[in-house]
Design a protein that fits this description.
It is built from two helices and six strands. By secondary structure, it is α+β, with helices and mostly antiparallel strands.
Length: 114
Amino acid sequence: MITRHVRTKINHRVVEHNGVFHFGGLVADDKSQSMKGQTAQICRRIDELLAEVGSSKEKLLTAMIYVSDFSQRDRMNEAWLEWLPSEHLPARATIGVSDLGKDTLIEVVVTAAS
């Protein structure tokens, strides 16, 4: 069975299948912030969405992180590690991209267990 959560105009923020939550890409609301600030915003939003569907960051399985400026990766990692306990780090890839949209420095896509 497939269950869809948090409908937006163009997608559902979370789709659940076989006990796994698949999250759509998340970007920061305040794009005036630095890479670290945008990452922290996204992490807080992930927490909110996980709680809404009955999961938590300790149940993250994978993360795909898209950054528009790879030279700022260390600042992204700072925020990521401040948010996520080291014993619960998911499998992860960080991918440099040329454009995520105006002033968007990072977009994060995660999956989590229920």
